[in-house]
Amino acid sequence: MDIRELTARVEHISQIYASRFGITRDADWQILKLQEEVGELTQAHLMRQGQARKKGLSRAEIDASFRAEVADVLSQILLLAHHHDIDVVDEIARKWFVWQEASPRPQDVPANDT
After folding, report:
1. Is the N or the C terminus of the chain less surrounded, counting Cβ atoms within 10 Å?
2. pLDDT per residue over 57-111, tens digit each?
3. Domain residue ranges of the chain, discontinuous segments joined by +
4. Cα distance between residue 97 and residue 111, in whole Å
5. What is d(CA 10, CA 88) in angstroms, rounded to the nearest whole number?
6. What is the second-level CATH architecture of the domain 3-107?
7. Residues 6+ apart with CB under 8 A from 23
8. What would the 3-class secondary structure string for 45-81 be?
């Protein structure tokens, strides 16, 4: 599945969710929902690192929660981009891939030992 198909499928599920719970998916909701999911990812990360209460969850349950929250954050990013008519593939190419030819290979960069 490519990212455009993934976006379409996530968008469809989000529409169902919004309809079921009476949510208006406006620009404010998009960004606030992303913030909520990043917070949940942060909490799962801190639990994995032993820096937050584990709430009785096993290591496997915490790891599963972390993976699920990564998926939630990515999904919300795709929804936010879709809402604002942003082609994520084009923007990544424009923002990130320009450095591919302009930058030295990682193995050619001296280590920073400070």
Report:
1. C
2. 999 999 999 999 999 999 999 999 999 999 999 999 999 998 887 766 777 777 7
3. 3-107
4. 23
5. 14
6. Orthogonal Bundle (1.10)
7. 17, 29
8. HHHHCCCCCCCCCCHHHHHHHHHHHHHHHHHHHHHHH
